[in-house]
Amino acid sequence: MINVRGLTKAYPQSAGAFQALRGIDLDIRPGEFVAIVGKSGSGKSTLLNLLGGIDRPTTGSVKVEGTAIESLSATALARWRGRRVGFVFQSFQLLPTLTVRENVMLPMDFAGHGPERGRADRALELLDQVGVADQADKLPAALSGGQQQRAAIARALANDPPLLLADEPTGNLDSATGGAIFRLFATLVAAGRTIVVVTHERDSDSGVQRRITLADGAVVA
Amino acid sequence: MAPRWRKATRDLLARPGRTALAILALVAGVFQVGAMLYKFALLQPELTTMYGRTDPAAAVFTTDVATDDVVDIVRRVPGVGHAEARPVVLARVRKGDAEWIPAVVSVVRDFDAQQIDTFKPEAGAWPPGRDEIVLERSALEFAHIAIGDTVTLRLPGGEDRAVRVAGTVYAPGLAPAWMEHVVPAWVTWDSPVRGPADGSGESAQIRMRVADHALDEGYVQEVADSAQAALERAGHVVSRVTIPPPGKHPHADQMAAFLFLLLTFGILSFALSMLLVTGMIHGLMQEQVREVGVMKALGATDPQVAGIYLGQVAILAAVALVIGTPIGLFVGRVYAEFSAGILNVDLTHRPFPIWLLFAELVLGVVLPLLVALIPIRRAARVSVHEALSDGAGARAFGERPFERALLSIRALPRPLALSLRTALRHPARVALTVAMLAVGGAAFMAALNTAAAWNGAVENDFAHRRYDLTVVLAEFQATAELDRTLAAVPAVAHAEYWPGASPYLVGPHGVSTVTATMLGPDPGSELLRLPLVSGRWLEPGDVDAVVINQSVVKNLPGIGVGDSVGVRQRGRTTRFPIVGIVKEIAPMPAIYAPPGAVRGVTGRVPGESRSIRIVSRSHDDAGQLRAARALETAFEAAGIEVTGMHRMLDQKKGILDHLVILISILTMASLIVVIVGAIGLASTLTMSVVQRTREIGILSAIGATPRTIAGQVAFEGLLLAVLSWLAAFVLSIPLSWGLEYAAGMIFLRMPLPFSLSPSAAGTWLALVVVLALVCSFYPARRATGLSVREALGST
Question: Which of A203, B87, B255, B577 pairs as cysteine with B107 (C-beta 3.0–4.6 A)?
């Protein structure tokens, strides 16, 4: 599913370049539920961003389903992201002026997924799947953190992508709600999706099949 | 509706304050352009064609008699299209015992068959009866006369004749009465106003049109020369031939300047509103950067993201168009009617401006979209990673030399240092806001400076003429007799008799060109000391030395001190050595010479005069008026006919009135520019507060009071205001120079002396400070209304 080779990422800073990743080699199989763990600043979010094509590597390559995403143009990368990857963020990132259902419809809108008339129904199905269908017509601000994150997961599934990338999805949630989110992920993995989640050590046992530990930009375990 | 378009609309609704500001900025642009274009569309055809529609005379002959036989002589000259007799009686008019006002009474052969310098009935009777008169419509208000009133005309023979005002006419070929301070009037061919049958009471004028090439001044001159020769061959005396500039209304220059200013300010304020839109969109995109990142992470392409925000701009622009267009058209029409009224112009065509709606659509929607494209494209291209990072796209403070310089100022109290650094953290935004306010302020100051320069020039000019009244008599009178009469008038403090003449200026090849005023003040007189450009003023002992004004120089280019100037009167040319050139605001050529030299030109002898300069005991308006009335009475009692009684304050007002329209346009237009600038300031301050929400939370958390935070916002507003004032002051210098130069050249044919009015700078400083405080009120309230939790939770 994902093949990473010699991946490095450096950020220029006034005090000199900061080396966030230092030569990562990594393979993730289809249907795998992988947790990337490590301390703050270890490079785990940077790695996730590179896997999802929301940042470009300094050197090395990331192949997802055989596509070398670093070689795609900005537009091609956006289209690829819209169809093949679903993102879940720590702070949910639901657009505040759209209802929950509209937030879920938005990726379909961008990707032109399915007939336009069917998108609202599909959004409702997805919200039902994650357990917040009754919140569909509310604005995100009216939902609890856990409900917002479930809605965000539904949004990530909007275009039926094979790969879900989640950056500390439970970071803003209490432990019970966080556990529920991980159980939801496990269900999705069971249904055949590949999920890579950046998380803290404490969450990484919640149904995760493999754990990749980063330290100072390198895989240490 | 697709979710992305819902987002576009709801984002706008979610921030009603800022959306309203953006719409207001766009409305200001649409309104200004609409008003100016519509006003231009209504006025321009009138101002450029109305004069042509009056069939203006190509030449006017002043002859000994203007009978039908004489007119026929002119009509038969090859090249002449038509000729009409239009004798003119130079009289004075008053209603009741009001002040006498100069009146130019034209005698019309047939009111219904006029073909030259035409006018048409406006109200009341047409044509007037034998004992009636019709007035130009602009004269009613100016002279406080109504249709049906009986007014007194004091005729050249000194006779007073009561005539009834039968009606008004519209004569667009003439300057409005208020502008020239003269009442234009018309009477029938058999009117008793004409005076004795020998024609001595009138100026026998014959007006002529050419058959073709009416705009070719050289051709007109040739035909006029032929007509003059034909008249002289027939034994008539042609005392003057006047050839007005072909196709040019007497106030064409003012009208051209008027239209030019309209368009200039329209374009200026529209450009400013576009700048404002750019700034607002830039701010919006900075705020939306995280959402842009999220959408791109969800698969939105750059064009899709850009489309959402362009959609927002299109919605804003469409709303602004719907609001601004009708208001602009309405105000444009009202203002056009107002301006037309001032210029005595009728708006004969009021077409529904389809082209203007199209122009508004392009300028009001397409242009904002194009302008917004730049910040939107830039924002849409931001990488997802950059967009989603904390402090996305933010540059650390202190990287730029200017910021390091700010940091090095240690002496400032900490809160003030923070305010200063915060205010100047976004130099591009500061520059944009300062530029917008500065342009408005510069325009405002330039308008006031031009008014001050104009007033200053007029005041200065009149300060060099230290008399209060000029009395013109119908006949030359013995000065001893005049002395006796004046001695009996207590309101008169001092009087001088200056001979005058109106000769032609003689050009380089001995050709008579324009008429000049020749005046013979006593060289030792204290009543006239005009400012010198070069050379010297007249001195006692001068015999034939003359001082010319700069208008003579303009008519005879290259002439200067040491040269001689030629004048032609009574069929002979006399040359005088030039000893000085003076500056005066009158655009007419004037020559000042010793009294003897002037008499030499006119052939008069010393000891007689028909022109008196009077210094009254009291120099204010009431004092001048009292003296004028006393003089009228005294001369009447002495049997001396007065044909002109000119009060200097009245003449000064007449000159000042010429600039009324210009200054009103400048001030109004600059105020609209100022409003756009103020919206920009309010928008900048709001944006600044929005972007610093988290920082405000931190300040609150560590103990800053709402007053401190509001003070910071107000400080930012005041800093921007003061910076903009400095920029406006600098910008107003060339702008004022240009406007003063243009106003001077248009109205006086010489630049106004450059003037920067301290009161203009002071007024703008006070205004911009008040504006800043008003504009910072809402953002400051917003900032202080945030709870620490809300502020710190903001992303």
Answer: B87
